Amino acid sequence: MQRSLLVALTAALSVAHADAAPQCMATLTSELQHLLTEQSLPAAQFSLRGRDVQAIDLAFGQASHGRPLTVEQPLRIASLSKILTGLAVLDADADKSLPLDSKLVDVLGIDSDSSGRGVGDITLRDLLGHRSGLRRHAGLDEMLRPEPRCPPHIGQLLSEPLHAPAGATFQYSNTGYCLLGEALRVRTGQSLADRVAASIVRRIGRSAIAPYDESDLTVRYHASPDDPTDDSASYHFNYPAMLASGGFQSNARDLSRLLARAFPSDRLKTLDTSTAACARRGGPRNCHGLIFHVFDDARGQRMFWRDGSLPGVSALAVVPAHARWNWVFIATRRHRDGLRLNEQLLASIDHVVARHLQCEETERQTRPGMKR
């Protein structure tokens, strides 16, 4: 695997920002390469950009046998798709076509008498923050089933009573984001894909962000190294149904570009809806606002982050509260415990980025002519 990483290294360095300090770039690249090797991740993209850092876009490893992964290649982004759905919902709230405090049953035109206990109280804000109270059944996640009830049988889905009052407690829900996508479609008359595309184009123009194309076989997604039952040949999901929660593709570069334009610090502040008592220093998943988890890192810096984990994919996106930079990481493998892997990657890359930013700052101080 070390050899395959080195194959793409020259190409990766050639697309890094020309003004980035060479030694800082070399160290960053080396540390990321070491992390991929350590975690048995055969290929990945990494992007870092913002007003306080030189833009860097890197690709490591091979997209498929004999074909180096490039920074332009779109990859499955799993639950980072929720950032795109969430952005489209925020835009619809801003233009008043779909206010966040709208009741879901009213938007979808569902008779409250036929809905389950408490369902009539669910707002779009509840769905965006995973606080709908929707019941989550044992076994395979609803949206990963071959025939999920959302979107084709929403009435049946919403006929079940809630397990907790709407807005009361956090419980991660892919189904909730599917319902957000349907609410957008019903209220605006446009598909989720079209609404997301409009949100993207007006911020960054053309990009690689789009619904995942399952017919594109240019990228190999790898089985977990610690799960003998994992079979990459079986990575087939109902991507149209799960579009809102996990069905988009992008490269790290374009997703990073979007984060830089779509989530300035004042907007991030409005998304931090967890209570003041929530232990943001207690762990990266302790507190969840709208769209993002919120936590304070080892340096006391507030971070907004979202991760994705599906067979063959590990993905992370991070924006600090000051929004002066962001980073995105997408790899073509996950481990059996995908959440644990992502938390390890989050902590490791957070430290790598911090060291890189300090290195660039030192370079600026010692080389006055270096561009900011």
Overall description:
- The chain is α+β, with helices and mostly antiparallel strands and 372 residues long.
- The protein contains 12 helices and 12 strands.
- A hairpin with a 5-residue loop joins strand 9 (293-296) and strand 10 (302-310).
- The model is unreliable at 1-18 (pLDDT under 50).
**How much of the sequence is in beta strands?**
15-25%
Q: N-to-C terminal Cα separation, in Å? A: 36 Å
Order of helices and strands: HHEEEEEHHHHHHEHEHHEEEEEH
Low-confidence stretches: 1-18
- Helix-strand makeup class: alpha+beta
Number of strands: 12
Residue-averaged pLDDT: 91
Key descriptive features of the protein:
372 residues, alpha+beta, 7-stranded antiparallel sheet, 3-stranded antiparallel sheet, 12 helices, globular, disordered N terminus
Brief rundown of the structure:
The chain is α+β, with helices and mostly antiparallel strands and 372 residues long. It is 37% helix and 15% strand. Helix 2 packs antiparallel against helix 12 (338-366).
What's the SSE blueprint?
Elements: H1 2-14, H2 22-38, E1 44-50, E2 53-60, E3 62-64, E4 67-68, E5 75-76, H3 81-94, H4 104-108, H5 124-128, H6 154-157, H7 174-188, H8 192-204, E6 210-211, H9 243-246, E7 248-250, H10 252-262, H11 265-271, E8 287-288, E9 293-296, E10 302-310, E11 313-320, E12 326-331, H12 338-366
Antiparallel strand pairs: 1-2, 1-12, 3-4, 5-7, 6-7, 8-9, 9-10, 10-11, 11-12
Helix pairs in contact: 1-2, 2-12, 3-7, 3-8
